[in-house]
Amino acid sequence: MKPALELAHILSAHLHEFMATHAVSAHKFSTLKAIEHCRTARLGGHIDACDSCGYLRISYNSCRNRHCPKCQTTNREKWIMQREADLLPVSYFHVVFTLPHSLNLLCLQYPQELYALLFKAAWSTINSFANNPKHLGAKTGMISILHTWGQNLSLHPHLHCIVPGGGISGSGHWKKARSTGKYLFPVKALSKVFRARYVSLLRSFLSANKAQVDNGLWKELFAKDWVVYCKRPFLGPAQVIEYLGRYTHKVAISNHRLQSISDGKVSFAYKDYRQEAKKKTMFLEADEFIRRFSLHILPLKFVRIRHYGILSSKAKSHDLALARQDLRVTTPDKIAVDWKSICKERLGYDVELCPCCSKGRMREILRFQAARSPPEAAYLLSVALHLKTA
Questions:
Q1: Half-sphere exposure at residue 388, Cβ-oriented, CA atoms within 13 angstroms
Q2: Which residues form the Transposase IS801/IS1294 domain (predicted)?
Q3: Cβ atoms of 249 and 160 closer than 8 Å
Q4: What is the domain count for the chain?
């Protein structure tokens, strides 16, 4: 059976020629190399032996890069388990704030700053509507997740936000949102306020940095309504968790969407939302595919999942505690789970169970370090066999 195509295979075959014609930062280059070498001998690893049947298995180290499609599963599950403890037995709303395409060039020039402004403007908008007695009149919270891509890997910065349907009133009690329909707050009003606040923040940033922009940009930004998309409220905490599982640790493109690489071209599946999410196949030159993927490598140490209001780390001990008390929810114990337990309890497989006899336990007998010229698998297995029988 032919092995499934992975992003690492495309990088291994075409990254060298891509670097010869494109100038990328050291951070982006190191990210691409990490993904290329993920779970290969170049990153080192270890050899396990079954304590029952003697079966030997080589396990190569993961790159652990947040942009790698192979390294998100256990991180995602651990994050979700921690977030489960924060969920309240109330309705939750899903709001998406999107930047217009006319800001794409500035996003490429100042990604860290403009994405940070997106977070700031979105929370400022939600917070102001929540504090307004006309809409809620309470202190609420928000979990926000930055995505920068569209289905075809083009630049499409947007923020997925999860907002509880209520908040803490001035008297310290939980106040339920008035809305029972699709929108937590009026979506057209949200859009106008979000646009005004983001443009104001952007003007201040560009002025402070003496950045020159075409005056026509400001007219263009106000010529059309900005997209603030509201989905129907989640049915309950369980559905919120399912959503978080799909979106939080998502990368620009997952391996299962990749279809083929041939004659220097990459094909991958995508959904055309202009045609009711119809499934299609896109063909790109490998060079262009890598360029588009590189657009979505976030700045070093940039935080792409942020918590605000009563869901922020600073407010949990007070505001979230008040909400739990008023809703009669017990405070959960802190969760500290290692990756092996996550695999067994959440993903349904035991990494230590021998895949050969299904009885013994796999025990580490040899560890090897990352190297420019890593040892061959046959050599490693022969050394391991010698150690096991010695």
A1: 22
A2: 141-314
A3: no
A4: 2
Q: Which residues contact 3 (CB under 8 A, 6 or more apart)?
A: none
Can you tell me the distance from the alpha carbon of 383 to that of 376, in angstroms, rounded to the nearest whole number?
11
Question: Which positions ≥6 away from 180 have C-beta within 8 Å?
Answer: none
SS3 labels along 213-249? CCCHHHHHHHHCCCCEEECCCCCCHHHHHHHHHHHCC
Same domain, 31 and 86: no
| Parallel/antiparallel/unpaired status of strands 362-368 and 174-176 | unpaired
Residues 6+ apart with CB under 8 A from 335: 81, 82, 85
Contact 100, 86 (CB under 8 A): no
The contacts of residue 328 (CB under 8 Å, 6+ apart) are none
Show the domain range for 358. Answer: 7-66+352-388
| Nearest partner of 284 among 294, 275, 274, 273, judged by Cα | 294
Cα 319 from chain centroid (whole Å): 27
Q: Which helix (H) or strand (E) holds 142?
A: strand 141-149
Residues 140 and 187 in one domain: yes
Could you tell me if residue 53 is inside a domain? yes
Round to whole Å and give the CA distance between 129 and 376.
61
Please name the residue ranges forming H helices in the chain.
7-21, 26-37, 73-84, 104-109, 111-131, 187-208, 216-223, 237-247, 286-294, 321-327, 339-345, 377-389
Angle, helices 7-21 vs 286-294, to 10°: value is 90
How does pLDDT run across 184-236, given as a tens digit for each residue? 888 999 999 999 999 999 999 999 999 888 889 999 999 989 989 887 777 77
Per run of 10 residues, the mean pLDDT along the chain (length 390 residues) is 84 96 95 96 92 91 94 82 81 92 96 98 97 94 95 96 91 85 85 97 94 89 90 76 80 95 95 89 97 97 95 84 85 70 80 93 90 73 71
Identity of the residue numbered 2: K
* pTM of the model as a whole: 0.90
- The predicted-structure confidence for 45-66, as pLDDT tens digits, reads as follows 999 999 999 899 999 999 999 9
In terms of domains, do 159 and 305 share one? yes
